[in-house]
Amino acid sequence: GAGVSQSPSNKVTEKGKDVELRxxxxxxxTALYWYRQSLGQGLEFLIYFQGNSAxxxxxxxxxxxxxxxxxxxxxxxxxxxxxxxxxxxxxxxSSLEGGGTYEQYFGPGTRLTVT
Amino acid sequence: xKEVEQDPGPFNVPEGATVAFNCTYSNSASQSFFWYRxxxxxxxxLLMSVYSSGNEDGRFTAQLNRASQYISLLIRDxxxxxxxxxxxxxxxxxxxxxxxxxxxxxxxx
Lengths: 115, 109
Fold this sequence. Notes:
- The complex is a heterodimer of chains A (115) and B (109).
- Chain A has 115 residues and is mainly β.
- Helix content of chain A is 0%, strand content 46%.
- Chain A has strands at 5-7, 10-13, 19-24, 31-37, 43-50, 65-69, 75-79, 88-95, 105-106, 110-114.
- In chain A, strands 2, 4, 5, 8, 9 and 10 form a six-stranded mixed β-sheet that branches.
- Chain B is 0% helix and 54% strand.
- In chain B, the strands form two sheets. In chain B, strands 2, 4, 5, 9, 10 and 11 form a six-stranded mixed β-sheet that branches. A five-stranded antiparallel β-sheet of chain B has the order 1-3-8-7-6, with no helix packed on it.
- Chain A binds chain B through residues 33, 35, 41-43, 45, 48, 50, 56, 91, 98-101, 103-104, 106-109, and chain B through 31-32, 34, 42-46, 49, 87, 91-92, 94-102.
């Protein structure tokens, strides 16, 4: 079956521009996570959606970052006024349910480069 | 102290060798533990869950020591295809997983 998909796969943007990254989770998965991974670094948790509950935004690094999940499916991560330190691979993952006990399936990521 | 700590490596081993990685976690309330594998420029994928009694999957054995708060992964008879970064992952009890920075393994002919 289809896995987690993300688009675009690569994005180059100028400092100060806004970007939108999209994630299509596996159908039927209620939990969706966004992470980012800088070169040679571990995964940094950004935000977590579980069903219709309020999202856990505790990992968002600044108010320039926001995310939404429409209809319990597709999610969009928006970064406003991008900075060079935002350059990283942004990974989306989904799992059957939340709570951190179920396997997370990752998308291929969006590689963001801010020039 | 980081929530999940791993030796970054790299571990350089010849084919056929046995190699072990350790990982420590800080939150004693953690309930679920996993090892993920990440190939270069690819997304992480689940290798195996770690159960309290220890578990084995082919050449891979995972152990959990709750008293000392560490998790281990043992790989026997290493293959070239085992070369990757191995991520220790812990559910800290706050509804999400915390990923370690990974241990890099290089298996050479």
